[in-house]
Amino acid sequence: MTEQTAIIAGGCFWCTEAVFNDVIGVSKVESGYIGGTTENPTYKQVCSGNTGHAEAIRVTFDDAQLSYADLLDIFFATHDPTQLNRQGNDVGTQYRSAIFPLDAVQQVEAEAAMSRNQANWPSTIVTTIEEPTTWYPAEDYHQEYWQGEGQRNPYCLAVIPPKLQKLRKSFAARVKA
Q1: Which domain holds residue 28?
Q2: Among 29, 92, 109, 131, which is least packed, fewest CB within 10 Å?
Q3: For the segment 88-143, what is each residue's pLDDT rounded down to a tens digit?
Q4: How many domains does the chain have?
Q5: How does the average pLDDT of the chain come out, rounded?
Q6: Percent of the chain whose predicted confidence (pLDDT) is above 70
C-alpha cells in the first residue's frame, strides 16, 4: 500500500466528505480550510468569505486501489465544476471548485483531469488549480458530519443523497459495500 494525499474543494465540505468516505481505497477524509490568508480560521470566519479559504477535504487513499486520476474523475462527476464560486445555494469563494496539487505529478494529473472531464459538461469547467497553502483542519463537529448530525440536517438531506446516487451509478465498482 502506498498512502497518498489529495486536497480538493467542491463546495460544502460536508458534501464532498460524504462522497469520498464511500470510495474504495480511501482510508480517511478530513474536512478543513485551505487557500486563504487568515491563520487558524474558524468556520464562522471562512463562511464570511473574507479569509480567502475554501471549504475543502484532505483525502488519504491507497494508490494501489485508487489512482489520483480516478479520484479526480470522481471529484468532477460529483459536484458542478462549471459554477464559479458556488455550489447550488452555497455562494462565495469559500465554495469554489479547486484542486490543490501537492507535487508536480499531481499538478500534471489535475490539468489532465480538467481536460478529460470537460467533455462531460455543457459549460466550461471553472475549477482552479491552486498552490497548496497551509491546511487547517475544520472544527471537530464538522468531521464525519454526514454520518451524524448531517442525517438530521435538511440541507444535507437535500444535497448529499443525489451526490451519493451519482457516485453509485457512475462509479459502482469504486463504492464501498
Answers
A1: 1-172
A2: 131
A3: 889 999 999 999 999 999 999 999 999 999 999 999 999 999 999 999 999 999 99
A4: 1
A5: 96
A6: 99
Distance CA 167, CA 57 (A): 17
In a domain, 87, yes or no: yes
Least Cα distance to 73 among 142, 176, 177, 173 occurs for: 173
Q: Is 81 among the domain residues?
A: yes
Among 12, 15, 47, 156, the active-site one is: 12
Q: Name the grid cell of 135.
A: 491546511
Could you give the CA distance from residue 88 to residue 80 in angstroms, rounded to a whole number? Answer: 9
Q: How many residues does the chain have?
A: 177
Its pTM stands at 0.96
Closest CA to 7 of 104, 94, 98: 98
| Cell numbers for 134 | 497551509
Q: Locate cell 507535487: which residue?
A: 103
Q: Which residue has the cell 467533455?
A: 119
Quickly list DSSP for 56-117: EEEEEEETTTS-HHHHHHHHHHSS-TTSTTEETTEESGGG-EEE--SSHHHHHHHHHHHHHH
Helix axes 154-170, 13-20, angle to 10 degrees: 40
CATH classification at residue 95: 3.30.1060.10
In a domain, 177, yes or no: no
Annotated catalytic residue 12: yes
Share of the chain above pLDDT 90, in %: 97
